[in-house]
Write a structure and sequence with these properties.
Number of helices: 24
Strand order of the largest sheet: 1-2-3
CATH architecture of the largest domain: 3-Layer(aba) Sandwich
Largest sheet: 3 strands, parallel
Helix content: 40-55%
CATH topology of the largest domain: Rossmann fold
Number of domains: 4
Shape: elongated
């Protein structure tokens, strides 16, 4: 057994825990060397409902599943794996999303499969194709290894036909699993099959009055009372989604799929149905849902969360992957104010990685974000420090910010540090859009002026290249020397409010080192004189 496999067997990081559970509960039953089963590979799947624009929750499912897949490949290096990103684009659109253009046009096509509704954005052959393309473009930007799958393609190509005929043969059994979960009115007409009207293209919610297993057809009653016979194959029907999910598990042989907390009951139903069809439910992880800034569940149709492009406007993609890695079973607010911390934590994890032993590296989120090989670019300046630097420089020119960085860390240059160069640009955007309008500088009290004066004199007495640690010690000692501050926390809060115009901020020693002695003294002089900063 290699050292890597041995470390993976003991790793506490949740992707390794999931991968070990997948091996023990499912793959090991197939026998050593045959973990891929009859398919010849272990299949991971993620689902996407393209009724709304792709959002971070959708991405989170793909990146988390990829992390489990990568962990499994460490445990079983000789076993092939595949990841299907499956779009339920055959579903009928039930309502017009709030965040799309041409809503009146879309409303004229309600009830039709998403791939039969014109694209309100005017860029693709259908609304479903547009949203599928948005999803693929984002996943591709991360370099994910995945295979996009379309429900429309699988239904209309006949690749689901055998599984659909199996559902037909077990129609009543499948129906009886679902009926107890429905209201009285819905129970009276429920069938797992939803015919697609050949005249209107609408997915019909109509009673199925007869099934013909030998002919492979169902007979349904239209709203006008007419009985219509239609095959269940070739894309003439689709399944109700719980039955559809189970049918897909059986048809594809899905080994692993995670899902949100809101689908716990659906997972239970689909597990029963896939058993009726002769299949086995995949290993499942239930993750918590993301919340918006008001603590409400994020919805694709409402568009009340962050879009993927929103995050990338203000932070590098690696920080988003870290946010997804952390505590998947805990509900988390997903809004703009979580971005700086996510970036800083990502930098901390990548900086620690080279110094860690193998066992600790496998528990480091950076290993899972980069599949074992995180970049080795040194962390010269944190994201939060850049935000404060942009604030006091009063400049949105990256070249100006880089002058300070290069003076603070002479080896740091934009050409050789692409991550930091990107960070400078997105920090400027974040500062402009979220911090600038909320900054409020207050004047120092006479007692605070005395403390600031002492701090200014102490910094002036240092050599120009004093270290952040040396400057931080000075800040501490000055704060402790003035009784007007109850504690050091009060002292630091005063510094933040007076010098930076905010209630929280960076380690001031690090900030003064980055800003430079002369500029730091000039900043303190203005605060002491009561001038506007």
């Amino acid at each position: 057994m290699s050292d890597l496999v041995e470390a993976a067997l003991a790793a506490n990081a949740w992707p390794f825990q999931e991968a070990r559970a997948l091996v023990e509960k499912r793959l090991a039953k197939r026998g050593a060397g045959n973990e891929g089963g009859d398919k010849g590979y272990v299949l991971f799947e993620t689902g996407y409902g393209p009724s709304g624009l792709p959002h971070i929750g959708t991405f989170g499912e793909v990146v988390r599943t990829t992390m489990v897949r990568n962990a499994l490949q460490v445990l079983l290096p000789n076993v092939k794996t595949r990841l299907f990103a499956f779009s339920d684009d055959m579903d009928g659109l039930r309502k017009v999303p709030d965040n799309v253009p041409n809503r009146e046009m879309v409303a004229q096509h309600l009830g039709k499969p998403l791939t039969r509704i014109p694209d309100p954005f005017g860029t693709h052959e259908s609304f479903g194709h547009h949203n599928n393309a948005r999803l693929r473009a984002f996943l591709d930007s991360f370099g994910f290894e995945y295979e996009f799958q379309s429900s429309t393609d699988w239904y209309t190509s006949g690749r689901f036909d055998a599984a659909l005929l199996k559902v037909l043969a077990n129609h009543d059994k499948v129906r009886d699993v679902v009926l107890p979960t429905l209201g009285e009115e819905r129970r009276a007409t429920y069938s797992p099959f939803l015919p697609i009207c050949p005249e209107t293209g609408v997915v019909l919610q109509v009673p199925v009055v007869e099934t013909n297993v030998a002919a492979g057809t169902i007979v349904y009653r239209r709203e006008d009372g007419k009985l219509v016979e239609t095959p269940v194959t070739g894309g003439a029907v689709k399944l109700q989604w719980k039955a559809d999910w189970a049918m897909r598990w059986a048809a594809l042989g899905v080994d692993y799929e995670m899902s949100g907390k809101d689908l716990i009951d659906s997972v239970k139903l689909a597990t029963k149905i896939v058993g009726i069809l002769g299949g086995t439910a995949p290993q499942n992880l239930t993750y918590e849902l993301f919340l918006d800034d008001k603590g409400e569940k994020i919805s694709k149709s409402r568009g009340n969360g962050l879009a993927v492009e929103d995050w990338l406007k203000y932070a590098p993609p690696e920080s988003l992957a870290l946010f997804m890695f952390q505590k998947p079973k805990t509900a988390k607010r997903l809004f703009f104010d979580v971005i700086p911390r996510a970036v800083d934590e990502y930098q901390s994890f990548t900086e620690a990685f080279p110094r860690q032993e193998l066992k600790d590296r496998l528990n480091n989120p950076a290993w899972h974000i980069h599949n074992g090989t995180p970049p080795m670019e040194p962390v010269a300046v944190s994201y939060s420090m850049l935000l404060n630097l942009v604030a006091v420089c009063n400049s949105e020119d990256p070249a100006v910010i880089w002058q300070y960085i290069s003076r603070y860390a002479p080896s740091a240059q934009p050409e050789g540090m692409p991550f930091l160069d990107k960070l400078v640009k997105v920090a400027i955007a974040y500062y402009r859009d979220f911090i600038l309008a909320n900054k409020h500088f207050r004047k120092a009290t006479p007692e605070e002026v005395a403390a600031l004066q002492q701090l200014r004199d102490e910094i002036a007495a240092q050599y120009d290249c004093a270290s952040p640690e040396e400057l931080q010690t000075i800040v501490y000692e000055v704060g402790k020397a003035h009784a007007c501050f109850e504690d050091l926390r009060a002292w630091f809060k005063a510094l933040y409010q007076i010098l930076l115009g905010q209630d929280t901020g960076p380690r001031m020693g690090s900030f003064f080192a980055l800003y430079g002695q002369s500029d730091s003294l000039a900043l303190l002089d203005k605060a002491i004189a009561g001038e506007d900063l």
